[in-house]
Amino acid sequence: MVNKLGHEDVRAVVPEELLDFRSTAELEKLEQIIGQERAVKSLKFGLHVNKDGFNVYLAGPPGTGKKTAAINFIEDSARDKDTPDDWCYVNNFDDPLEPNALRMPPGVGRDFQRDMERFSQNVVDTLIQSFESKEYQEKREESLSEVQREREDLQERLQSKAREREFALQQTPIGIVLVPVVDGQPVRDISVLPRSKREEVQEKREELREELQETRRGFRDLGKKAQSNVEELNREVALYAIQPLIEELEEGYGDIDEISEYLEDVQEDVLENIQPILALSQTEQQQENPLAALQRQMNDPRDRYKVNVIVDNSDLGGAPVEVENNPTYPRIMGKVEKEAQFGALVTNYTMIRAGSSHKANGGYLVIPVRKLLQNPISYDSLKRAVTEGKLEIEDVRERYGLITTKTLNPEHIPFNVKVVLIGDP
Questions:
Q1: What gap in Å lies between CA 326 and CA 371, rounded to an integer?
Q2: How far apart are the C-alpha atoms of 359 and 381, rounded to whole Å?
Q3: Under 8 Å CB-to-CB from 326, ≥6 apart: which residues?
Q4: According to a count of CB atoms within 10 Å of the terminal CB, is the N or C end of the chain lower?
Q5: CA distances in angstroms from 300 to 72, 276, 296, listed in the order given
Q6: Residue 290 CA to chain centroid, in angstroms?
Q7: Are 351 and 340 in contact (CB under 8 A)?
Q8: pLDDT digits (tens, 9 = 90+) for 153-201
Q9: Read out DSSP for 179-202?
């Protein structure tokens, strides 16, 4: 006999005496994967194998919560690992198209960026104060007066030789010329003189011509000497002025070899660009039209000393876990941005942007495999980066010959990441 059952009969009821809580709100959130002991063991093994080529593929039916559970499990594992280093890009003073990558301990990148920003502001005020000082003006006048005395002595010797041959020296816009003196009066047109006198004048002029050429060469050498003396003095004064700023940075970051070498390059670049830096104070005090102000802003020499922090792990505890749900090439491998200026696209090292691979470096990169395979360029680039152990930021169009414009070629970064692909069985 078949009996019809009501809903009370088919409902499973857990006896209340078996439960030690009144509501599920009282329970702690469950972070572990339930009922997948073999999968958990395999995942744990894959995450802890620190060898090249060992990555993880996590398969399971859609809608089972495998992605959320796996990410929670990976994040728990990441907390026990060391926090990876920060990465920055700085100017390459030898070749601005190939920016240098600097590696520094976690959290140092942000501090170094701030201190270099402060340095770029202080270096202008420091140099202006030094070059407007009374001591500098006195040293400069002393250096130039010494050359001026040599110039006067050289000119006096030439005048003495000219007087012996009855010639006078006359300064013109094209230089010094020889004017014959006859009966105490300068003669500009020797054609009015008798033939014998003209021949005598021509003969004496030829004798003085070599002396005049030698004197002109002496004047040019003295001009170069004056310029060299001023440049040497400027360099000496500038070095004395900026050394405290560089030493302050060395005290904070000198134990990092790459930063110490970079600071040496910064110091040398400042000494090579004293005049453009000093010109900032003059242009800032002048009233400029908007176009001139924009051009000055574009060519600000202080921008050469900025630090572009692309990976900042200062707030990270343990290894990073990056989940990339939209694995396009720029989002995974990074990019170099450009901006329009006066109808042209321009860029520099401060426009380099990190991809999820850079942020996951030293940790874990989680990607849905189906979305990754829908972006073949992303898959090929990520595979090459994992295989070669380095991250390179490039314009993907240039790789396939679709574009040949001049762009940046940033220094590559060592790459060590565990890739976790999530997909279907």
A1: 7
A2: 16
A3: 371
A4: N
A5: 47, 8, 6
A6: 27
A7: no
A8: 777 776 676 666 666 666 666 666 666 666 655 656 555 566 666 666 6
A9: EEEETTEE-S-GGGS-HHHHHHHH
